[in-house]
# Entry
Amino acid sequence: MPRSGDAHHADKVYSALRDKAGAAHSAVVASWSRSLVNYGLDPDRTQLPLRLTEAELAAAREKVEPLVRQSETALDHLFQMVGEAGCCVLLTDREGVPLMRRGMAGDEADFRRLGLWTGMVWSEACTGTNGVGTALAEERALTIHRDQHFLTRNIGLSCSVAPIWDAQGRLAGALDVSTCRSDLTPAMLKLIAAATVDAAQRIEASHFRAAFSHARIVVADAGRGPALLAVDREDLVIGANRAARLAYDLTDQRLASGCPTDDLLGRSEGRIEDLSAGERGVVQRALARAQGNVSAAARTLGISRATLHRKLARLGISRLH
# Structure
């Protein structure tokens, strides 16, 4: 049943939607319009969100198991920051289904009643305008605060959400911090939103590094969050997170064809490639690993000691032993 003061929320929604220009000027009203027109939802609907069966929830977790595994530490850290403020933390998949949750024991009854629990479906299509569903629909971080929700039953919630992108730059899920406290100030909500974005970026970085554990990771400042590049032994970019893909116009096809790191980062302008420079680097690294021992370096390179001596002379490299 609606609480006192909630009875006119549906009227507010319908009034906003009667303004034909409203959806063009307000992201919230645009989402309300999708909720009503595209999904056929009623703002006064009182039912809980749909809930997956245990088997369906297990299958959903299995699909993104590496991401779930890499999220544990960031979820714990975020919850330590916001838990005592009456917030719960949810990690969802791309369908808006919470797969992991953190919350204070004293708040669990309220959050269960509201459906902020693992296995519930918080997509915009099922639940209307809400933090998780709308962030996933619009592929951006946002906060849906109280009566910005579409359903009257949810207007006591404030939800700050950031999308999470996998190691291939695809939308994988969302990180949500929700509270039903009414006394949080706008400044506190901004801090919670910033902490949520930061935690989502740390999850993405951890997942990316695990996916490319065999490569060197280069971090660039792309203005859209940390741009991570995975670089192989030939100094070719073989992987890029979403921020890097957007910043450098990287596609799966371009990555598959090979992209020199220096070209991508603008460090090769005006430089003529020197094949001997590449060979010199290989030889110098082998010598460094062998602590200057030519015989050991030659074995590492799979060539004879005499051949390596000739290369050293040709490349102008001084040996240490």
Q: What stands out?
A: The chain is about 45% helix and 15% strand.
